[in-house]
């Protein structure tokens, strides 16, 4: 059953309809086989790009859709309900454009954004390193200025679309200070840039994840985004938005698993009744529904704060943590509802369960989210009441 | 080329569809309205013809207020403008009176080519294209899986049980299409935004100059007198293989005229 939604405009409601239609017709028939074969559906991103989804939350003047996060995240959730790898890939792509949109010069934006937002190109984001995940400031990848160029050396771990993307937003150290990190936009064809074989993952197997190697990669100095040393600020700001993307993806994934479980529980009979009429399972399903709706509500609350221009880092962390922990629980319980069948690969819920696990880990582990939330509790004062549509009061 | 593509809002086939208890007409409030699937192929074909030959694509729909959703979708796909024939007096119109109302409207708005899906998923009469062509006195090219326009000549491949016939006519013409003709595009978000600004003309029965005795339930030549739920599927025939399974299966298929 599709989630009930309140959209801010008629156009955004129409977009949700179109995305649901696309997901049902184009994604649903392919997801099981592609995930089993570890087959990356690059063409799906071309379709989503043509539809305008890949640039949805960015300004129209650069080829984006000019939509608030409240809309973009609900689109992402509808995609995730059918195919998590595609939703995560979309979120990563949107994140990979974040630095340029927010911190690039006008000239840089005009030159590159239309292709990046218009769907022709697919992006990747290189932040983590083999020994610097939760603590990005510990990174060792280095960019050294030589005349009009930077020379990049190092390795970037866990790169979604690694080896398949058209451009990489790369964070690299430009000084020895702990925060001396800068942001670069590296094209896929740059000499010296290569991808290791993809990781052999537990889930999201339709989405390639690889370590990217930078071996004397030379790029023009005008491919640095923002100030030298301004990279960590970009990375951390991007993470707040990225967390919302993952919260939406997890909510959609959980909705998808819940839908399968409810469908099954209405049809499967034991002791002469559909199993959804047995209280033991009925209450399990009720808890799953409550978890999904709570995750959605928290995610959209954080999104609306962001759309108002308010600080939303704490809420983004809460949304990411709640939505992904709930997705883990909901998908696990969906396997329980389907019983033995749920444990087989002939039904999608075991895959949903494997997919949920990584969402508690990437885009900041849920332990890191708790750190962010508790630090905000220790530090922040209360926030004033915001009014949607009224801008900042 | 001035192309008019006729679209119809139908109840979603994925939901339970009902008739109204008072007059046995379709209960349009009981199910979500969606664009009749074959009409999406008609819109796509119209857009492709426009892209190849230039001109304009107008969407024509007849239906209640909520059929505006269907118009918006066709406009979001890329059609230029729309005409919405909407009037309570049209309620209950059968195929004959629908074809009258739409033909009258088509005469009013003008066309070189009318394209529509070969049938709708609700009433499934599949006769509207033929009736429109007859009423308009123009060439009738139905069940097309391919359309080519050259000058004033329009050629289609008409699907048949054994393959296809090549049928040619001259413009103006009415074409109905089958699902093999193309792959309808998804509206882009830019298309959805653009659709907001495209003109939609609403016409009532009087404005379309429809004779009151030719439309609506009262004018219908066909009447639904009774409706019943489809019977539950009967148990299938099980062929037990005792060395002659193949023969028995073949006999069964032959008795059903499958082979």
TrEMBL record, chain A:
> Which key words tag this protein in UniProt?
FAD, Flavoprotein, Oxidoreductase
| MF annotations from Gene Ontology | acyl-CoA dehydrogenase activity; flavin adenine dinucleotide binding
Output the PROSITE patterns linked to this UniProt entry. Answer: ACYL_COA_DH_1 (PS00072), ACYL_COA_DH_2 (PS00073)
Q: Which domain of life is it from?
A: Bacteria
Q: Where is the Acyl-CoA dehydrogenase/oxidase N-terminal domain?
A: 10-119
Query: Pfam families under this entry?
Result: Acyl-CoA_dh_1, Acyl-CoA_dh_M, Acyl-CoA_dh_N
Q: Where is the Acyl-CoA oxidase/dehydrogenase middle domain?
A: 124-217
Which cofactors, by name?
A: FAD
All copies of the Acyl-CoA dehydrogenase/oxidase C-terminal domain together span 229-377
Instruction: Enumerate the Gene3D superfamilies for this protein.
Output: Acyl-CoA dehydrogenase/oxidase, N-terminal domain, Butyryl-CoA Dehydrogenase, subunit A, domain 2, Butyryl-CoA Dehydrogenase, subunit A, domain 3
The similarity comment for this entry is:
Belongs to the acyl-CoA dehydrogenase family.
Q: What is this protein called?
A: Acyl-CoA dehydrogenase
Q: What is the lineage of its organism?
A: Bacteria, Bacillati, Actinomycetota, Actinomycetes, Streptosporangiales
């Amino acid at each position: 059953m599709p989630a009930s939604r309140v959209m801010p405009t008629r156009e955004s409601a129409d977009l949700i309809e179109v995305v649901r239609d696309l997901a049902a017709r184009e994604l649903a028939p392919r997801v099981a086989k592609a995930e089993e074969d570890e087959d990356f559906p690059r063409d799906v991103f071309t379709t989503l790009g043509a539809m305008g989804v890949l640039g949805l939350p960015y300004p129209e003047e650069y080829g984006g859709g000019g939509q608030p996060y409240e809309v973009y995240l609900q689109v992402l959730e509808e995609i995730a309900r059918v195919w998590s790898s595609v939703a995560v890939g979309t979120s990563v792509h949107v994140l990979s454009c974040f630095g340029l949109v927010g911190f690039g010069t006008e000239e840089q934006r005009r030159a590159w954004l239309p292709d990046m937002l218009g769907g022709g190109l697919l992006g990747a984001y290189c932040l983590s390193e083999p020994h610097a995940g939760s603590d990005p400031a510990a990174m060792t990848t280095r960019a050294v200025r030589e005349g009009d160029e930077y020379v990049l050396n190092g390795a970037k771990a866990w790169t979604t679309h690694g080896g398949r993307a058209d451009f990489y937003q790369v964070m690299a150290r430009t000084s020895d200070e702990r925060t001396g990190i800068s942001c670069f936009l590296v094209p896929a064809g740059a000499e010296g840039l290569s991808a290791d074989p993809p990781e052999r993952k537990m889930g999201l197997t339709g989405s390639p994840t690889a370590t990217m190697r930078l071996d004397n990669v030379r790029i023009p100095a005008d491919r640095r985004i923002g100030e030298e040393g301004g990279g960590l600020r970009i990375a951390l700001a991007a993470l707040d938005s990225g967390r919302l993307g993952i919260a939406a993806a997890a909510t959609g994934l959980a909705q998808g698993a819940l839908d399968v479980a409810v469908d099954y529980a209405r049809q499967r009979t034991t002791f002469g009744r559909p199993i959804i009429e047995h209280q033991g399972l009925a209450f399990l399903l009720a808890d799953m529904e409550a978890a999904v709706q709570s995750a959605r509500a928290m995610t959209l609350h954080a999104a609306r704060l962001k759309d108002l221009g308010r600080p939303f880092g704490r809420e983004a962390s809460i949304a990411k943590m709640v939505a992904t922990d709930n997705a883990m629980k909901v998908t696990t319980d969906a396997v329980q509802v389907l019983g033995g069948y749920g444990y087989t690969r002939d039904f999608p819920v075991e895959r949903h369960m494997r997919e949920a696990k990584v969402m508690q880990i990437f885009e900041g582990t849920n332990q890191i989210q708790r750190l962010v939330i508790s630090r905000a509790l220790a530090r922040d004062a209360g926030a004033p009441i915001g009014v949607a549509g009224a801008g900042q009061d | 080329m001035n192309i008019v593509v006729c679209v119809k809002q139908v109840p979603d086939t994925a939901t339970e569809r009902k008739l109204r208890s008072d007059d046995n007409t379709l209960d349009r409030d009981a199910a979500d309205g969606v664009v009749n699937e074959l009409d999406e192929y008609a819109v796509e074909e119209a857009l492709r013809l426009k892209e190849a030959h230039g001109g304009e694509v107008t969407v024509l729909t007849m239906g209640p207020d909520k059929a505006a959703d269907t118009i918006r979708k066709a406009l979001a796909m890329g059609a230029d403008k729309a005409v919405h024939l909407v009037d309570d007096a049209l309620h209950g119109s059968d195929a004959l009176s629908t074809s009258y109302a739409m033909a009258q409207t088509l005469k009013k708005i003008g066309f070189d080519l009318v394209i529509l899906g070969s049938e709708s998923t609700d009433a499934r009469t599949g006769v509207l294209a033929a009736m429109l062509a007859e009423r308009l006195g123009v060439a009738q090219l139905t069940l097309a899986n391919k359309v080519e326009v050259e000058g004033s000549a329009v050629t289609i491949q008409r699907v048949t049980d054994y393959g296809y016939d090549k049928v040619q006519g001259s413009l103006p013409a009415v074409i109905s299409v089958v699902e093999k003709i193309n792959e309808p595009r998804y509206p882009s978000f830019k298309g959805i935004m653009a659709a907001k600004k495209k003109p939609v003309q609403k016409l009532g029965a009087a404005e379309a100059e429809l004779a009151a005795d030719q439309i609506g339930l009262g004018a219908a030549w066909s009447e639904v007198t009774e409706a019943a739920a489809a019977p539950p599927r009967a148990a299938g025939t099980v062929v037990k293989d005792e060395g002659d399974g193949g023969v028995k299966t073949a006999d069964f298929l032959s008795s059903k005229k499958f082979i």
